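Entry:
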Amino acid sequence: MAGSVHEKPILQTLRGRKTESIPFWLMRQAGRYLPEYRAVRASKNGFLDMAFDPSSAAEITMQPVRRFRMDGAIIFSDILVIPWALGQNLEFLEGEGPRLGELNPGKLEMRDLEEKLSPVFEALSRTRDCLAAEGYDRTALIGFAGAPWTVVTYMVEGGGSKDFAKVKTMAYAQPENFARLMDILVESTAMYLIAQVRAGAEILQIFDTWAGALDPHGFQHQVIEPTRKIVERVKAAHPDIPIIGFPRGAAMHYPAYVAQTGVDAVGLDGLVCTKWAAAHLQTKCPVQGNLDPMRLLAGGEGLEKAARKILRDFSGGAHIFNLGHGIHKDTPPAHVERLAEIIREFPA
C-alpha cells in the first residue's frame, strides 16, 4: 500500500501498513470522566457554549491526548450541530441529553451552514496547531459527523428514542418527504466534512449510532445509500482523506456496509465477534474497535483479558484499538491509563 513510514501510526494503519504498535483512540475520550474537562465545563454555560468556543473545544480535545497519548484526537463537538445549523432548535439538558425543537423541513436552510459552523472549523485549526506545538507528532486529528439516519432520528423524535416510532412512521408513511429530508442531510453532512478537512482534519469518522434500529431494507436505503453518497462527495473533494464508518448495531449487515459505502475502515460495536470480524471484515479493510465500555469502567482482570483478546484476534491485519461505543462518564482515568499500557505492550 502507498504511504510513508514517517506517517502518523493511525494513518499508516488506515492505509493497511504495519506499525510499531497498535494505534488507538477512544470514542468520547474527551468528556466528563476527566477532572480537567469538568473544570472547563464548570466555567461555561452548557455543552454548546463549550463546543462553539474554539479555544475551549481545542483545549478539551487536547486533554485526553496529554494524559494518555492517544494516536487520534477527535475534535470536541456533537453530531447534532448539523440540525442546529440547518435551523432546528437544539439544547442539551443536564442529565437528560439533547432536546430538539419542532421540525419544519420546509424551513431548513443550508445556505449559511459553513458560517454557522465556523467555530468547529476554527477549533480544528487550533487543535492542529496545539498538537504540533506540544510535540504530539504521532497524533492525528479526527473530524466527524453523524450519518443522516442517526441525525434524522433525533430531528424527528426530538431527542433519543427507544422504539423510533416517529421517525419510522415518517419513513414508511411519507417516503417522499422523508427522502427530501435525508437528501438535505446528505448534502449538508458532506459539505460539513469537506470543510473539516480544509480546517485541518486528517481523518473523518461517520457515526451511525442508530443503524441497528432498521430492518434489512431500511438499512440498505437509510444507512448504506446515504453513507455512500457522502463518502463519494467527500472523496471527490479530498481523495486521500481516510473515512471510518461506524454503523453501530449493524450485525449481519457489516459486510454489505463495508462493500458498498466506500469507507476506508469500519468501526465495530461491542457485540461484534472479533474472530468473525477478522475473517469477514478485516480481510477487506482496516477495522476499529471494539472493547465494551463497561469493561473499561469495571477495570481489573476483566479489562485486561478482554483487551488482550481483541488485540490477539485482530493481530493478523490492520487494526485501530477503540471501544464499541463511548467512554462511560464514571470511568476512572486510571483504567484508561492501564488500557493504554496494555495496548502499547502488545507486539504489533
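The chain has one domain: 9-345.
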